[in-house]
Design goal:
There is one protein chain. The chain is α+β, with helices and mostly antiparallel strands. The protein has 2 domains: 1-44, no CATH class; 46-137, K homology (KH) domain (GMP Synthetase, Chain A, domain 3, 2-Layer Sandwich). The chain is 37% helix and 29% strand. The longest helix has 21 residues, at 47-67.
Length: 148
């Protein structure tokens, strides 16, 4: 695949390559060669589920990195959900909600970590989570057919 060389030289440039592995089975690969299989079928997350996972995952990292310096969580679960909207055949997700269930031990360090969770969730939503902020504020998406 061709890449806009000037674009790829930008230090803020991010990219993944997606290849078809089989029928309804795809593989995303990043610049380090790390891969993630997805698609439609048994054992695979769909692209929409990956979007929801990316939102939850981004905010999870924001909260976990800071709180786990104080204490290891007893429970750390994040549910990301949305409502599929069909607007005359144009589909999207709306009303996306990210719900945290994070609990720490009932000791001094655990209580300090627990006390940080609300503030870190808010910081993630308002400033730190690139994924949710991109979805919420929108980004231009340009589709290019390299063989046209």
């Amino acid at each position: 695949m061709s890449e806009n060389n000037e674009r790829a030289q930008d230090p803020n440039y991010r990219a993944v390559k997606v290849e078809r592995v089989g029928q309804k089975h795809y593989r995303a690969t990043n610049k380090n060669g790390d891969t993630l299989d997805f698609g439609q079928g048994e054992g695979m997350l769909t692209p929409v589920e990956l979007l929801l996972a990316a939102i939850a995952g981004c905010s999870s990292v924001d909260v976990d990195v800071v709180t786990s310096r104080r204490s290891e969580p007893e429970t750390f679960e994040v549910l990301s959900s949305g409502i599929r909207k069909d607007d005359n055949g144009a589909v999207s997700l709306d009303d996306i909600e990210v719900s945290f269930n994070v609990k720490f031990p009932a000791d001094a360090d655990g209580e300090k970590a627990q006390g940080m969770v609300d503030r870190l969730i808010k910081l993630s939503a308002e400033k730190d989570c690139t994924v949710s902020r991109t979805v919420e504020h929108g980004a231009s998406v340009n589709f290019i057919n390299e063989n046209a």
